[in-house]
Amino acid sequence: HGSFTGAFVGMVAFDITGQGCTADFTRFRYAPEGT
Asked: Which of 1, 22, 25, 32 has a CA that sits 20 to 30 A from residue 15's CA?
């Protein structure tokens, strides 16, 4: 398709306790299966 810009990876976290806790990510590493 002419408008494909590549793959994207995202992270999300939900506070299901209702206490307003934050999620602070300091690093992220993606490794495909088998590596």
From this structure: 32
Residues 6+ apart with CB under 8 A from 4: none
How far, in Å, CA of 20 to CA of 35, rounded? Answer: 36
Specify burial of residue 27 (Cβ count, 10 A radius: 0-12, 13-18, 19+): exposed
Tell me: the pLDDT tens digits for 1-35?
678 888 888 888 888 998 988 888 898 888 888 87
Residue 13 CA to chain centroid, in angstroms? 8
